[in-house]
TrEMBL record:
Matching InterPro entries: Ubiq_cyt_c_chap, Ubiqinol_cyt_c_chaperone_CPB3, Ubq_cyt-c_CBP3-rel
Listed Pfam families: Ubiq_cyt_C_chap
The protein, known as: Ubiquinol-cytochrome C chaperone
Listed transmembrane segments: none
Record-stated family: Belongs to the CBP3 family. Belongs to the UPF0174 family.
Signal sequence, renumbered to the chain: none
Gene source species: Microvirga alba
PANTHER family to which the protein is assigned, alphabetical: UBIQUINOL-CYTOCHROME C REDUCTASE COMPLEX ASSEMBLY FACTOR 1 FAMILY MEMBER, UBIQUINOL-CYTOCHROME-C REDUCTASE COMPLEX ASSEMBLY FACTOR 1
Domain Ubiquinol-cytochrome c chaperone: 34-168
Length: 181
């Protein structure tokens, strides 16, 4: 009985690896240098949220157990945010309030990006990403093109590909506006 506490859970390991790959893609320097995402705490949250949203949307279209994996991925995302806040020294009484705000922001972004991603509407997505991810009224056209390409790539992958080699995101630099290269 006690030894079961020390066994590795293969599903938990799979989710941790999947989340780590998504988080790594969200930290690609080109997102910040070429596509205009601010290299701030908020900008990094926006980049991570965008990548998690795209991965969740890809999982949504796959057969079982993709829905369970999507739920576990969402849990891993919020657990990571919680741990990051605690590491920054935010008090135990404040973390739940901040997590509530972050969850509202995340689901708001997911809702705002859903229709433009569904329609592959680059202009509408650029406006939403400019406002949310870049904190500006200017459309984030390069970031929108990047997100649409990532969406296409991940939706073409099957569940085994999403899990084993992991999701492959395009190079952000390939989507930079001419003036940002």
């Amino acid at each position: 009985m006690i030894f079961s506490l020390f066994r590795k859970n293969p599903r938990r390991t799979t989710i941790a690896i999947l989340y780590a790959r998504i988080a790594s893609a969200s930290r690609a320097p080109g997102l910040y240098t070429a596509l205009g995402v601010p290299d701030t705490l908020e900008g990094r949250f926006e980049a991570l949220s965008l990548h998690v949203i795209i991965a969740l949307r890809a999982l949504r279209g796959l057969p079982a157990p993709a829905a369970d994996i999507a739920g576990d991925l969402t849990d891993a995302f919020f657990q990571d945010l919680d741990a990051a806040h605690r590491e920054m020294g935010i008090g135990d009484t404040t973390v739940p309030k901040r997590m509530k705000k972050l969850a509202a922001s995340f689901y708001g972004r997911a809702n705002a990006y859903d229709a433009p991603l569904d329609a592959a509407d680059e202009a509408a997505l650029a406006v939403a990403l400019g406002r949310n991810a870049c904190g500006t009224e200017a459309p984030a056209t390069g970031l929108a093109r990047y997100a649409l390409a990532a969406e296409r790539g991940l939706k073409a992958a099957d569940l085994a590909t999403m899990l084993e080699p992991g999701p492959v995101f395009p190079k952000p630099e390939d989507f930079a506006e001419e003036g940002n290269r």
